[in-house]
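Subject: for your reference before the review

Hello V.,

The reviewers asked for a structural picture of the protein, and I figured it would be easier to keep everything in one thread rather than splitting it across files. Below is the amino acid sequence we used in the manuscript, unchanged from the supplementary table.
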Amino acid sequence: MTKAVLTTKVHPEYDDLPEERYHFPKTYLNQVNQAVGDLAIYYEPRRPSGDLSSSGGRQSYFAVARIDRVVEDLKTKDHFYAEISGYLEFTRPVPFKEHSQYYESILKKPDGTTSKGAFGRSVREIPDREFELILSAGFGHILGKEQRQRPLPDAPEEPMPSLAGFAEPKVGWPTDIPLEQDRKIVEQLVSRPFRDRAFSAAVKDACGDTCAMSGIKLINGGGRSEAQAAHIRPVAQGGPDSVRNGIALSGTMHWMFDRGLVSIRDDYKLLFARSQPPESVERLLGGNRRLLVPERKDLHPHKQFLEFHRREVFKG
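And here is what came back from the structure prediction:
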């Protein structure tokens, strides 16, 4: 087994749903087979905007998951699916390089420039140490590494690159983290408390710490948001810890959503179990009957999870 980096592709030829499956051509079959049973990190290439129909993106590592097995695509010749489990998004997307430092050494040419040839490979093997450094940077916020760590000698102090839609805790290049501690990060990926903290941080950040139904944003005296991160498809029913499977809700709306008293249409209009919400809830909503969604289209609730909630949870 070996760890891998999987580049997501926004193209009609590919049938990716990162939370569940990774679609790839036969070219990468050997590399993916070697990673079966091990962890992989997702990388999003360039897109000029958050629109999924555009051709660029964040140029960042954004999630980790486990590759369970590989199955043949029976509809598309010479294509396969890697079936995924344990999907978990980073609380901070990690650029492929910070300052002059590359997280994947294979991407850096001897002259210090980026290797376009290596970048062109959609599936790349990655050494454990480099894999763990990316995890440290991606989950640094919930691991208590908000303070800036010692940068490498040739990494000058400068602002981090802007990554729209996500918080940017001030962490530096995590070279001073002992390898043993990095391995503990890998072990925590299966811990429910760790996953809940990561899911909550990513969802609330995507939603601006605002209840997506009422539009209310409350920050307590300690600077923490009162919004709660709700799974659309519950974890107990196979729901992933994905921003697209989550919405930020106030305590009241979260309680109603989990009990099927309110749900969401594919166009993000709200549905209520008895067609009309109670008067007290109506006041809370302020007349709003549509879900507030993140600015980035690729962070919007996915219709597959919304459909599950309406079918299996909603009491309408």
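For the response letter, the relevant points are probably these. Helices lie at 29-35, 116-119, 128-138, 179-188, 192-206, 251-258, 279-285, 303-313. The radius of gyration is 20 Å.

Happy to draft the paragraph if you're swamped.

O.
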